[in-house]
Fold:
Amino acid sequence: MLKAGKALKVSIYISEGSKHHGVPVYSSILDFLFYRGVSGATVVKGIAGFGADHHMHTSRSVEISDRLPLKIEFIETPEKVNEILGKLEELAGTGMVEVQETTVAKPAQVSRTKTTAPPEHLRIEGKAKMMRIYIGEADKWRDKPLHLALVEAMRANDIAGVTVYRGILGYGAHRRVHKDKALHLSHDCSIMLSVVDAEEKIRAFLPLVEQMVAEGLVVLSDVDIIKYAYRAPEQNVEAGQ
Structure:
């Protein structure tokens, strides 16, 4: 992390369309700086300019230009800059790399939250129930997509979690084949919601499922939870928050 005192500011000037192994140069440089532990870097885009080829590039052209100038700038210790400068020159290609001496008057600081102990992970293990609900994508409940309404209802009733899957091929009680075609967005594909929670919570929620699912299939299975862990939300103890 940077400290107050002498440092170097590095500016790299490239064109927006420059590539390195098929990847935009600015992206390659940012990745390199990030994974080499540089404190921070910024990319700014010019709206007009010219370079060594003496061609004027401007954003006022009818087509969006990919030759506009970009500048990548960062500040680091002289030791770090000398360590990575060779690779930066290689990545910059035909661009220009400028190094200036500078002074860090006040280094940036990572924002700190209150020094409270991190919340513990909550774990659930043992016997549970899996509920699967099979419906159609076009099914509604009170003018809302049924699968969305079910997810909202489960969240409101403290169900541990639900995942919605969209089928690509299948048929149901009417024996009509529903197929997700690449060039046609079908609105009648099959939808499956998968839920795992304690049996008592699933059983308590079933009456609501029966009300909401007018046509579909609901199945329950016994499952063993090997590991279900999540971080408990931090409790806000300050008044008014």
